[in-house]
Amino acid sequence: MRELPGPGSMNQRRHNAMSKLASRQCAPGLLAFEGDKAVGWIAIAPRTELGRIEASRATPRIDDEGVWVIPCITVYKAARGRGIALALVQAAVDYAIEKGAPAIEAYPRAGTERIGDNNAYFGTEPLFHQAGFRVIQEPLKNRPRNWVPRVTMRIKVTQ
Q: In Å, what is the CA distance from 148 to each residue of 15, 88, 134, 140?
């Protein structure tokens, strides 16, 4: 695991990292609440701000468009099946548009087969289809055998 930079204890470095994220002009993601309980999270940011996405062989760039990306989404197990994930995706798209994104990408698991929770954190193809995303790249042909097949999906901002 990569160490957090900076001086101090691990707790202090975590605090500093979270404070830095919280003070950014653009939030690193959105939360879904039911009452006062957080039941979901979605990450959304310009692709260039997400070094792991930029460097990943699993999510190669398609073109030079200044896309924002949704790298992960999660919904509390007891809150699933009520449309929270779709609402989070739609809210993330709205947020990115509000901040000037020309397009939003996601890299969900390919196909419609039900999957275990461990492979669902980057979303599913049907979820993003339902939110208006379209496949722009099929799963990589020469991916390592142990990689989950993922598609690149995009929604363009209409002006």
A: 33, 23, 19, 10
Q: What is the mean pLDDT of residues 14-31?
A: 78
Number of domains in the chain: 1
pLDDT(47) > 70: yes
* pLDDT at 119 > cutoff 60: no
Q: Judge whether 122 and 72 are in contact, CB under 8 Å.
A: yes
What b/e readout covers 116-139, taking b as 16+ CB neighbours within 10 angstroms?
eeeebebbbbebbeebebeeeeeb
User: Looking at the domain assignment, is residue 21 inside a domain?
Assistant: no
Provide the residue range defining the domain that includes 62.
26-156
